[in-house]
Amino acid sequence: MIDSIVTGLTGLTSGVVHLATHGGPNVVMLAIAAALLTLGVKKGVEPLLLVPIGFGCLLVNLPLSDLMDQGGFLRTLYDAGVANELFPLLIFVGIGAMTDFGPLLENPKILLFGAAGQVGIFLTLMLALALGFPELEAVAIAVIGACDGPTAIYVASQYAPQLLGPISVAAYSYMALVPIIQPPIMKAMTTEKERVIKMAAIKRSVSPTTRLLFPIVVTVIGGLIAPKGLPLLGTIMLGNFMRESGVVARLTKASENEIANIVTLFLGLAIGATMEGHAFLKPTTLAIFGLGFIAICLDTVAGVGFGKLVCWATGGKVNPLIGAAGISAYPMAARVVQVQGLRYNKKNHLLMHAAGANTGGQIGSVVAAAVMLSVLKGMGMI
Amino acid sequence: MDKWTFGLTLMIVGVGGTFLTLWVMSLVIDLLKKIFPLQEAAAAPEKKA
Asked: Are B33 and A206 in contact (CB < 8 Å)?
């Protein structure tokens, strides 16, 4: 009888014993989980993602719970929506339903800012290769530079699932840090004269028919040029088409609310579940965070550099600061441009122009990833 | 193919392809705006009765 009680008590203490004897990396990850939860709850840094990611990280680093073993709760979530890329795509439907592409449609040429803002992806690819990452891992890391969480998750889950945890956390962390990362680069790259340039007000010129046809046109053109990225482009444009059609208000609302919320919870938990200490705490993780930071800096450099080029080409009609908004972090990057514009000229409202570049960045990030995947397919790498 | 050839190829074709795709999209949107212009009545603010 006493032996049975002792054996039973051993079962109750096995978790603590395991953590004390084999769980060094798990203890570190529990501290990281606490940091993520603190950032989300106390600092308001991407709480919708960091809270479930932090909690998933907490769960998976408590030993002997088998949550990520076959049949475990977190493994089931991971297999259901991350391993097969379903969750990021469902989030894209919601993003499309939430986004007003109006400012972009008023001045379609501003889409090119969305291309310039992706140059960091490709430069970071070279850096990742130089650090010795295999080709497909380098591609997945570089896509952090898209500044677009779902795209980074989509590419990583397909081609570097072993790096999904650090890539996802890096992508969302840096998206949240855009207001801190971008302003010094914007200031360093522009002159006082350029920063105070006032841009002409945008006149309303887009018909409802054009707004309705826009998502179809983007889907068809993107799908024909870069078919490997059609799931990304197609889902964001599906959401936007539903929004603009106005005839499926229930589906639009469900996409941007219930579906996006449920999927965000599941996606966050499943990503957190990939952050088990022994797998996560490696030098590669630090390298990924460093490369992600460089990628977003390079995006900003390329975007503002392109803005300067357009400013010169138009005889000073374009404020180069809006180039910084050509990334996918919506609407943070547009707000950063507005704030910086007002800082140097109290009457300079760049928000609508920046919003156009920012929505261009959303399309640009997806197109860049799509082009990359299609080129990889053409090269026989995937 | 060595990794530098791979990286350079992906960079050149990737950047070029992204710019090209978005440029084509912008041209088609411009075309759509010409084919389906905003009607004056729709553009004007609604007057109160």
From this structure: yes
